[in-house]
Request: fold
Amino acid sequence: MTGCGLGDDIPPILQVIGDSGEVYAQDLSAEMILAASTYVLPSHSRSRIRFCISNASLLPFADDYFDAAYHFGGINLFDDVRQAIYEMERVVKPGGRVVFGDEGVAPWLKETEYGRIDVTNNSLWSAPAPIELLPEKALDVNLSWILENCFYLVSFEVSKTGPFMNMDVPHKGRRGGTMRTRYFGQLEGVTEESKRFVLEDSERLRMSIQAWLESAIRDKQAR
Reply:
């Protein structure tokens, strides 16, 4: 876990992972690590807990080292939130999960009296969930609000490949082509007259636009 603070979350994590699991608790502050170890170690096995003083944006662990990474409370104040998320992803094995959360009133409540009172009480509750900062390859992403909708919770599965969609399936219909060719094969600077001619002639020949263009190119190359 990154940013372990006083170690309040360590005992429930130990309970969840069972007797064979280990917790690596990281924090930038040596004082926090000392406080967390003083709080946790007297009542839990020392062999199951490792404490680490380091920067959450530069974790001293190898790639794919852990089964999961966890952070709760504090990421809003990190200098580089995106890098902190990427570091958690980096040290987790493919198929493992990254879970993090912090203050942030649910967006549908921000302009209500409930939300304004919350933010007036604690300005950190105005922070949005940094969902746009997730790694491109994140899978099975979940975003929820907990603790009376005043804290966001984000989780995702770590993946080396990311989401997959077959972008080369031929489309039926007027445009034709595939998702890939529709994106990479766009023509620039075509006049309205040329465009109208292609539309009308492809319709006359009962061809998709993509098939008409490919045919025209092959005819030109054959000459």
Q: What stands out?
A: The beta strands are 23-27, 49-53, 66-72, 92-103, 139-146, 151-157.
